[in-house]
Specification:
This protein is α+β, with helices and mostly antiparallel strands. The chain contains 5 helices and 7 strands, in the order E-H-H-E-E-E-H-E-H-E-E-H. The protein has one domain: Aminopeptidase. A 7-stranded mixed beta sheet has the order 1-2-3-4-5-7-6, with helices on both faces. Strand 6 and strand 7 form a beta hairpin. The structure holds coenzyme A. Coenzyme A binds next to helix 1, strand 4, helix 3 and helix 4. Coenzyme A (COA) binds next to helix 1, strand 4, helix 3 and helix 4.
């Protein structure tokens, strides 16, 4: 991909994003859990219901006006549970995941939530995910990672260029 400035836009999902989001859920499930295509499809159907029923907050990241990733999270008492964070493989390591996490942190503060917590799965993407979250002050707590100081996430990150 040629070198040019990357603009990442974070926004709420629109109805036209539904199929793309379902595709992202499928990408996340098959990448992280190494499960059969049948089970991925089953989980995608469940995800569609979850999206349509607004069970979780969902944000979408656009690059060049196309969705390339998303985050899904919900608020508990003073804590944000980050359920999913996903960036399409081709768009990784350019700051998209960081922008999504930054938006989750901002929304958390607006909802009086001062910690972000997530569950680690035991499968393939775990090491990369741990390295990503450690950048932002998350620490391991058993099979979870917790960030108790959101300021590191909220420091503005410079969006990089495609190499
Ligand atoms: C984890 C994930 C969301 C990161 O998204 P991303 O857009 O690539 O992240 P960023 O570009 O903002 O990375 C920020 C920093 O995190 C660290 N990092 C991210 N991915 C990494 C990897 N694979 N290996 C090592 N460090 C990594 C790096 O320090 C990176 O900064 P650098 O590129 O300047 O070195 C993305 O890899 C992904 O979708 N993975 C599959 C799903 C997943 O594991 N989700 C998390 C659990 S729900």
């Amino acid at each position: 991909m040629s070198e040019h400035e990357i603009r990442v836009n974070i926004r709420s999902p629109l109805s036209g994003d539904l199929m793309r989001l379902i595709g992202f859920y499928g990408g996340l499930f098959s990448e992280l859990f190494r499960i059969s295509p049948d089970l991925v499809q089953k989980l995608q159907r469940r995800a569609m219901n979850s999206i349509l029923s607004h069970e979780r907050e969902i944000i979408v990241a656009d690059v060049a006006k196309s969705p390339v990733g998303y985050a899904a999270y919900c608020f508990g008492q003073g804590v944000t549970y980050l359920d999913h964070l996903y960036v399409m493989p081709h768009f990784r390591r350019i700051g998209v995941g960081s922008k999504l996490l930054e938006e989750v942190a901002q929304d958390s503060l607006c909802n009086s939530s001062f910690r972000i917590c997530l569950q680690l799965n035991d499968d393939s993407g775990k090491d990369a995910a741990i390295r990503f979250y450690e950048q932002y002050g998350f620490v391991r707590d058993g099979n979870r990672m917790v960030c108790r100081d959101l300021s590191k996430i909220l420091e503005k990150r410079k969006i990089k260029r495609f190499k």
